[in-house]
Every structure is written in C-alpha cells, then in structure tokens.
Amino acid sequence: MNRLTVEEFKEEKKTPLVVVLDNVRSLHNVGSVFRTADAFLVESVYLCGITCTPPHAEIHKTALGAENTVEWKHYEDTLLAVADLKLEGYTVLAIEQAKGSAMLTHLQLDKTQKYAVILGNEVKGVQQTVVDVCDGCIEIPQFGTKHSLNVSVTGGIIIWELFKQLH
Fold first, then answer.
1. Which residues pair with 115 in a beta bridge?
2. Does some domain include residue 1?
C-alpha cells in the first residue's frame, strides 16, 4: 500500500505547512487533525491554549498513531505561536468567516513560501485577537442552511487544498 514507516515519515520532505489548533476542546478533533496532517506530510501541529496534547487515549482513538509521527508543540497562548511562526517566516492565515476573508476557491499560494493555518474552537472559532494578527483570513464557501463545519472537517478541506498547491 506504499505506506511509509515511522522512520521514513520522519525523513520525508514535508509540506511547508503548520496547522495551529486554537483552543480546540474535542480530543477526537485533535486526533483527526493529526491523522490528516500525517496523510499530507504536514510539518507540524501546534496545540494552543486548552487544546489537549498527546499522549492521550482519546486523541489516539482518532489519530491512530499519527500523534507519534507528526511533530507537535504546545503553546499556552495562540498569540505566542503566531509570533513565533511569523519570526520563522510563515504566512499565517486564520480559517474563519470574517469581514474581508478570501474564499478558499480563490486562494493562490506561493510555492516558495511557508504557511500556517489556524483552526478555531468548536463554538467560538478563532479568537478575534488571533485573527487580528494574522496575515489573512480564509473562508470555506458553504451553500446550505448551516454555515459552519466541524473543525476536523475544516482541517481536512484546508490541509488538502494547501497540500495540492504546495506539493
């Protein structure tokens, strides 16, 4: 099935993408993001605020071991994570419905750049103070009666689109 071993995964060239979880409370969502990050060779996942960190049985239930392959860091405050990412040359994008946000369907990435995307809390989304310091805001177009998606579903859509453009 052409699956990499853990050692091969660690050595594989990564997608220049960091996924930041801003106060995500569901451990199943955290695990799902890890699993998607593994599938698309994401550089790292930053777990911020109340977001739980591995090792944890509930994260493992959906991550299925991806929490052991994908690099991760914990930050007490998402603003500190954003500051560090910007110092390291990342373009930081909040995934949020906000005034002035760009639709994902219009996103054009520069393959020479590194990106970080911030996924927010299941109820409150990305903190406004975090949105305010980002380089931009991306919105997933939605056409039904609901105008929100589960954070792990959002992560899957966003990670896939950025992977396609950056790989």
1. 17, 91
2. no
